[in-house]
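**Protein record**
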Amino acid sequence: MFNDPPHEQARILIVDDMASNIHVIREAVRDLGEVRFATSGQAALEMALRAVPDLILLDIEMPGMDGYAVCQAIKATPQLSDVPVIFVTSHDQDVHELHALNIGGVDFLHKPLNVPVARARIQTQLALQSKTRQLAAAQRDLADVLQRLPAFVAYWNADLCNEFANDEAGHWFGIDADAMRGMSARAVLGEANFAALEPLLLDALGGDSPSFDLSLTRRDGCVLHGQVALVHRPQPGGRPGCLMLITDVTERKRAEQALRDEKERIRITLNSIGDAVIATDPAGCVTFLNPIAEEMTGWLAKEAIGEPIERIMPLQASDSGRTVGNPVRLVLAERRTVGMTLDRALLRRDGRVLEVEDSAAPILDHAGQLTGAIIVFHDVREARALAVKMMHLAHHDALTNLPNRTLLQDRTQQALQQAENSGERLGLFILDLDYFKVINDSVGHSIGDHLLQEVARRLQRAVRSGDTISRQGGDEFIILMPDPASIEQLGAFANRLLKAVSEPYQLAEGRFDLSVSIGVSLYPDDSKDQEELYRHADAAMYQAKEDGRNRYRFFSAEIEEALLTRQALERHIRMGAEQGGFQAYYQPKVDVTGAAVVGVEALMRWRDDNGDIISPGHFIPLAEETGLIVPLGRFILRQACLDGKRWYDAGRPLRIAVNVSAVQIADGGFSDTVRSVLAETGIAPELLELEITEGVLAANVAQTMEVLTGLRGLGVSIAVDDFGTGYSNLAYLKQFPIDVLKIDQSFVRDMIGDKSNTAIISAIISMANGLGLRLVAEGVETAEQERELLKMGCSVMQGFLYGRPMPVAEMEGWLRNDVQHLAGGSL
């Protein structure tokens, strides 16, 4: 059980005052171990304490402290008391040998030494010393094991009195091992415990070795569940005795009891819940049914145990009645939970069919091994019927039983998706009864409800099978017509609706006459989504009421045209401005004093699907309204900077002017856009001029100031376009970082012969000169206008007199011949 300690060389200490004697003895034991020597008793004691020897060879006759005194001192020293001492002397009297043995010596060697005999005796003592130490170590190891063993070990003699116990701390019975020794088993175990153990202890004394479980009560009243083993072990001399081993299994017992309690709790729970539960083994054979499962299947548990799940719980499809597999089989095959199925029916043992919902899961043990499956199911006949009813109520109008707003929205969305996929149209009619509130208030809500129900019936007779009629509340109805054959069919259908509603109503309370106003919208002709369909049809319905009621109206052609333009604009912008037909045109700005082109204004043009060029006036307002001006503005800014950089590199440094809308200023990221375009194109900031209108300055002063300050920080110029037409305010000119004023063409156009316009232009020029601002006159078309402007102090002009807006290629040709152009125009 225990390993021997590693072999170490024995230490032998020779004690003699004669060097010759030491030499003889040393030669006799040279190969028996490490040999040391001392020539006096005191030196021998000191040396032995420094390194405890395995054997001492001690001379008796020494001066000062003789051998007997040295031996007595060694035996009195705890560290040395176990060291064997062999006396070596020339005395041969028995009295000396007896005295040496009495004081602790183990042997006696006579001088002169008989070397073989001496060696044999010394070897014997060394071997005995080694075995003694091994035995002591084994005893210590055994004692340590017994003390640390998580069990109670005791030995009882024939009188059932304790002779040994390992419970040094008194943990088991409140009595430590020393105090327990000699006590009776009755006193140690306690009266109740002893009464249970006494017969078994007597059996063990008689030769049996029983093992059993027993509940023991400790002195503190706690109950200990122990596993007891008694082993017959006679004492030396043959008297009976027995060993007792008690292992504490309290936690195991508690766990077992908790498991039993849990199993009982689960059993009661499964038998009490409202769902049916069936468990199977790994082969799919039934191992458990709760009472609800018995009731639903028609099988008693005692009859069903061991039967295949399919026999106890046969399932079929609710709609077709075909047999379907039990989810338990899928669970066992794939070791996974199978979610609830909604279209299952259970065929009871008596042949009746129950609508059920079920779910199943695998049962795995602690090692993850499949031990079976469990399926839970319940009867859903009433729940399904109630759900169908609730679903109908949730999606239908309580008064007319027509689809309500929620169901109509769902069907409209589906119809829009279908129309988008197939390329079909979709018509939406909104009907509002004329003056119905007057009728309702005058004759009462009850009659009004009857009238609404009759209107609903007439509408149902008028529509096709695939159309949807919905009551939105009050006296408003909506009809959704998928895939109308033509616009004419929509109009004919609207006329049928007008006629159907206007037929007299005969109720018990008398005759009633109604009329209706109808608005019609059409996807995708005038609406792109559900919201627009409703909104446009509603607008058309109100137009019908304004036009005299009892009529229908389509969504207006003008609005339809604007919507189509918007759709095309959005589509082209989504394609990308370059691929969407957007182009940069340029109109030159001329310094007439030097007959030189000093700049150009970048203007946007759009080529539509038909190839026609659309002027900015037709699409820029729409782009601003929809926010599409932001990506368009970035396109024209980037393109203008690219062209300006190319002209600069070719030796034509022109200032490039780009218009900026209020939407771009309000976007929040315009300064970053300009910074990014400047960095991308490499154009010098001083060559870029951004034109804004006076309306932008006045719209949001704080935000505009922040944006313009940021732009000025980039090094670009700011120009006020169309100056003098709107919010002319000297405070703006002083407050904002403005570099250029552009005189609006409306003043220039009528300046010849109109003194007011001439005076306004003169005032603008004087104000600009006073503020140190540059000037540009727009709309110059005649040489006479040019001369007058030049006289008043404005030398930079722009207009048809010098050149119309033109594509970049044409502009570059114009620039190559600009002197001729200018000479031919006015100079």
